[in-house]
Write a structure and sequence with these properties.
Layout (H helix, E strand, L loop, with lengths): L3 E3 L5 E3 H10 L1
Antiparallel strand pairs: 1-2
């Protein structure tokens, strides 16, 4: 699986979700 990143609220998401959020900004 992809690397795990930690959000400010403490929920763990994978790097694919992080990339999607970055593209939205």
């Amino acid at each position: 699986m992809s690397n795990i990143y930690r959000k400010k609220n403490g929920v763990y998401i994978n790097e694919e979700e992080v990339l999607l959020k970055v593209k939205m900004i």
